[in-house]
Amino acid sequence: MKPVKILVIDDEKLIRWSFEKKLNSEGVKVYTAGSGEDGVESFQMEQPDIVFLDNKLPKMQGLEVLKKIKAIDEDAIIVFMTAYESVDIAVSAIKAGAHEYINKPFSFEEINVIIKNIKDKIEKEKEIQLLKREKKDSVTFNDSKQSKLLRFASL
Q: What is the largest CA-CA distance in the chain?
């Protein structure tokens, strides 16, 4: 399985550095951006599997970045982060398409659980798509076989 690619969009250099240091050592490819504009650009270039997105960013707030990323890829998996606990922000982020919401400060145990759950979800979705294709192929084959039998029987 290819390594997970993560984009961290946060104006706090220590947060970005921590993600890189901790997750790169675990085989995760980490990209970082210090602003919303850079984050959207990095998202387009790197096409990460998961985005960790801070709410408070210079110039462009996290919700606006989330919406721009979702406009690029509606299936983007975004974990919304904030140091300011607010039900309104959490609800707005989830409504805008965030996969999950996490409060700062967080532990990397929490981050690892989130990443594992997302990886498991992605794998299950791939498996379901594969099974659907296999089922569709087998149904198509059987249908054409039955069709030939019916044509042969009517001769």
A: 78
